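To close the section, here is one more complete example, presented without commentary so you can practise reading it yourself. The ligand is 3-hydroxybutanoyl-coenzyme A.
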Amino acid sequence: MTLEHGVPEKGDNVACISKVMDVATVAVIGGGTMGNGIAHVFALARFPVVLVDTKEEFLKRALATITDNMRRQTAKSILTPTLMNEALARLKLSAKLEDAAQSDIVIEAAPENLDLKRDLFAKLDNICAPRTILATNTSSIPIASLAAATKRGDRVIGMHFMNPVPVMKLVEIIRGRATSDETYETARGLTLKLGKVPACSNDFPGFISNRILMPMINEAAWALHQGVATKEDIDTVMKLGMNHPMGPLTLADYIGLDTCLAILKVLEEGFKDPKYKACPLFEQLVSQGRLGRKSGKGFYDY
Ligand code: 3HC
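Output:
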């Protein structure tokens, strides 16, 4: 039995050891920042990966980014050229969603848009074998609302990677209300095979990571908006005063201001709490096409 948002009731044996499904093949849907990083780490961990996106040009760009990032790791002796070439050879690019059909797990990393993701989940549910796990890299959309687009709620789960995926150790694993123990243990085991560390969250808006991170970034934007300090000084305080690797406004640019805005909206609507209301600077900058690093301009110019 679980309560709303999949919170276990007292007495639920959430730690019970259950079967783990064998995962031999992986599909990643979406070759953007997160999707290409996810394909990168699975290919390096020796999984054959099919990376699916809607257009050849997106796939070419994703492959170029993966190659650059692997070269960067090779230059730092994290990889050998042989390992890099073997990993790249495990990567197949496809513009057809049907090519995900043979995979044991599909990891969806499409843009943070509920309708788009629900549509993808409904299509994947039809295309893939009944045993296939459908995972989402969503940063805040409820797992339950994606599971509801399928007839396999027990095989739907969140696997939320952090940017830059090849570097960041965490994978936040989100159990939906119907996610089975087998699906959870499989996602957890895969995370460990990637050399990453899993942390489990129940299905609340923003999960753990963005429920805590986004209010901090939002508060930094309000501080800038209200003239408390310059962007540089806000970032310097958090970087040097709190030992964060990046200041919050630099990090917002790194994540993407459109993504930050979308997550804040999910938090505000999900909790019906105005404390999550996005600072107007996000709408302003996004409407000017200042999406952060990916568009060359955000809080900062790149
Ligand atoms: N692929 C492979 N390697 C990469 C990489 C990539 N995409 N990006 C950086 N690296 C490597 C570099 O080669 C370097 O390797 P080294 O330590 O062996 O020299 C190392 O990572 C550090 O990179 P740099 O020297 O270029 O720069 P920094 O020292 O400034 O580190 C950073 C960059 C790792 C991005 C660091 O600034 C950082 O940790 N920033 C915070 C990132 C963060 O908070 N991410 C989470 C965002 S929230 C999220 O993703 C959730 C979403 O839902 C919003």
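Once you have examined the tokens, check your reading against these statements. The chain has eleven helices and eight strands. The radius of gyration is 19 Å.
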